Amino acid sequence: MNEIERVPRTWFCTLTLDPQWQHKVFMEELVRKTQRGWLDADFDDAEKEFLLRCQGGLKLVTKFWKNVRTPKKGEEPIQLRYLLVAERHISGLPHYHALVHEEAGNVTYRRLASRWTRYGFFHGKLVDNKLKAARYLTKYVAKSNLCRVRASERYGLQFEELSEIASVEQVLDWLGNSPSL
Question: So what's the pLDDT on residue 142?
Answer without folding.
Answer: 57
